[in-house]
Design a protein that fits this description.
alpha+beta, single chain
């Protein structure tokens, strides 16, 4: 009898273990199913957020196309240049911002047709002086951009310098694609790049400075006969009424005692071709950040590059 009772006890324990195992397995399967469902929902939300982010870029293209059709000059008071609040979408929101890039100094201007452009180098060095940054940054950047492997100015740097670093690499010898590339150029640290980001840009083609968007430091750098205080006066004047032509800017500023010469006007424009679109789309817990550089010459702006992450 004891043997039978012992066997019954073992059987009961075995049944309990099987029940516990089945319960654990069921709980595990439910957990995995819930996890899989959340992953599917998260992936769906991210896909939707990406689609909305890309749609925001196309929306910006449409806005700029219409603006180019009805306006001959670009300024800060236009609807596209205003910061709009976040717009609700199904289970989320989207926010976008269009920024002019023609009011900033294009670093790729330093080298034209593969060789240094002395006039642009002088302007950039003037900007560096205004910002209390070393003039050698301009010469190092020229060597990084030009097509040869010879240092063009004192303070420059070519392959000989970069190959001697702890983690060696070669000079790019080509135009910049984005501002972050400056971190590889001699003398450009994080602080310097952050400071320059408010005054410089990277565009694929040379262009003039839009006086309706340029910071006073940029205006003073490219206008040979205008001082920084006078450039600040130009910015204050355009805040009252944007300039519809560089000639009208000259007339209005001369009337206020600012000597703007015909030579200064050759560096300026009141229309823009390049714009940066920054956006953020959120659906559920998924969030996507979009950025695109647009080029508007006529009609529908083209996408120079875009990033959706």
């Amino acid at each position: 009898m004891r043997k039978i009772s012992s066997q019954k006890g073992v059987a009961i324990i075995l049944v309990l273990l099987i029940v516990a195992l089945a319960t654990s397995l069921a709980a595990f399967m439910v957990t995995q199913q819930n996890l899989w469902q959340r992953q599917v929902e998260s992936q769906f939300d991210r896909t939707q957020a990406r689609r909305i982010g890309v749609a925001a870029i196309h929306w910006a293209r449409a806005v700029l196309s219409e603006d180019g059709r009805v306006n001959s000059y670009d300024h800060e008071k236009e609807l596209w240049a205003m910061r709009l609040p976040a717009m609700p979408v199904d289970n989320g929101e989207v926010i976008g911002l269009i920024e002019d890039r023609q009011g900033l100094f294009n670093l790729n201007n330093l080298v034209r047709n593969g060789a240094a452009s002395p006039a642009d180098v002088a302007q950039f060095q003037h900007l560096l002086e205004i910002l209390s940054l070393p003039a050698e940054l301009a010469t190092a950047l020229v060597d990084w951009l030009d097509m040869d492997s010879e240092t063009q100015y004192p303070g420059g740097a070519e392959d000989v310098y970069y190959l001697a670093l702890d983690q060696p690499y070669r000079a790019a010898n080509r135009p910049l694609a984005e501002l972050s590339e400056l971190s590889r150029v001699k003398g450009f640290d994080r602080r310097t790049i952050e400071m320059l980001s408010a005054y410089t840009t990277v565009l694929p083609t040379p262009g003039l400075i839009n006086v309706n968007f340029a910071p006073p430091e940029v205006l003073a750098a490219v206008m040979e006969n205008v001082t920084l205080p006078e450039a600040r006066m130009i910015v204050l004047e355009r805040a009252v009424q944007p300039f519809d032509s560089v000639a009208s800017m000259q007339t209005r500023m001369i009337a206020k005692g600012v000597k703007v010469t015909p030579q200064d006007l050759t560096q300026l424009t009141v229309s823009s071709e390049y714009f940066m679109v920054n956006g953020r789309a959120k659906v559920g817990r998924a969030q996507v950040v979009t950025q695109a550089l647009l080029h508007r010459v006529s009609g529908w702006p083209s996408v120079v590059w875009q990033s959706v992450q």
